[in-house]
Amino acid sequence: MKNKAFKNLIYSLSISVISLTLFSFSNPVPIKNIPPVVDSGFKIRTIIVDAGHGDRPPQGGRYSPGAQGAYSFERNVTLAIAKKLQDELEKQFPDVKIVMTRNDNYDVLWGKRAEIANSNHGDLFISIHCNALPDRKVREVTGHKHHKPVYRTVSVADRSGKGVLLLVYSTNRIGPQNEALRENEEVGDDNKVITSTENKADDPMAAILLNQMKNKYRKQSIHMADLINTEFTQTDGRPSDGVREQVVFVLDHTAMPSVLVETGYINNHEEEDYLNSEKGQNEIAGSIVRAVQRYKDEVEESGK
Questions:
Q1: How many Cα neighbours within 13 Å face the side chain of 17?
Q2: Closest among 167, 168, 144, 142 to 153, alpha carbons compared
Q3: Contact 159, 70 (CB under 8 A)
């Protein structure tokens, strides 16, 4: 990092920035809407699209298959939606680079996904997933003994889940994102974060900048999630569980505004049909693109 540019940036922070770093963002879930933080002169140049889960890689090893419905798998649905989202983003924003964390059926480990996002200096990370409710445990009568009922506990599929859910990283686990931010804390002449390998963990000025970036990215993540949620509910008429904090590795480890989109409940028959249909996938991709357009306009409009 250029020391002069870094110190100039640090000393230009006002007392309000220092106060911001001391403020605790320990909001309970669900999260209420927080106004966006705007970077004067900032341009979105790279968007990371992450298709959640995947099949076992040909070389073997660990993988995360995800949820499944009556006839489909989360890993296939998320890839189909992610590819449609990629196409629509490229049409709408030809000057923006769209990076996919995976382009085929095979899983990419969470750490690698975050590495892809950070190494490409992403300005926005959008992870596509499908939701599912765990089975319910119920007791049923299997017979009688001495005139008393005999019970057993069985699992019953819970197909009651319906609608979308937006997740942002939890403030209960900020260490990993701090490390990612430290590796990306250098600021260039165009205000864009670029990779730095210089360790400034013991520099109090660097700590101020680090906290400012962390708080800014969290606010922007919440606002982006709220914009997507609004499109889903008001444009597509989807039910929603809102915007919530959750400890998710891939969100914790990305040094940029990051949102995980639970597009629907794949173990609900009606939702599964929607998630697998061209209409449903196009609506989901379209709603996310409209939200990105609003977000992009806001953060790129200087002085707003």
A1: 17
A2: 142
A3: no
d(CA 113, CA 254): 9
Strand partners, 96: none
- Percent helix, strand, coil in the chain, to 5, is 40, 20, 40
Please return the burial class of 133, using the count of CB atoms within 10 Å of its CB with bins 0-12, 13-18 and 19+: middle
Count the neighbouring beta carbons within 10 Å of the beta carbon of residue 62: 8
Domain 3-133+161-300 classification at class level? alpha beta
164-169 vs 258-265, strand pairing mode: antiparallel
pLDDT in tens, 65-113: 899 999 999 999 999 999 999 999 999 999 999 999 999 999 999 899 9
Cα distances from 58 to residues 51, 54, 84, 105, 204, in angstroms, run 18, 12, 25, 10, 47
Q: Which residue in 238, 232, 225 sits closest to 268, CA to CA?
A: 238
Q: Residue 67 — φ and ψ, nearest 5°?
A: -80, 170
Identify the pLDDT of residue 89.
98
**Rounded CA separation 198/184 (Å):** 10
DSSP code at position 64: -
Domain ranges (residues) in the chain: 3-133+161-300
Q: How many residues does the structure list for the chain?
A: 304
Task: Render pLDDT for 121-175 as a digit per residue (tens, 0 to 9).
Answer: 999 999 999 999 876 676 766 777 777 776 776 666 778 789 999 999 877 655 5
User: Which two tokens mark 134?
Assistant: 């765990």
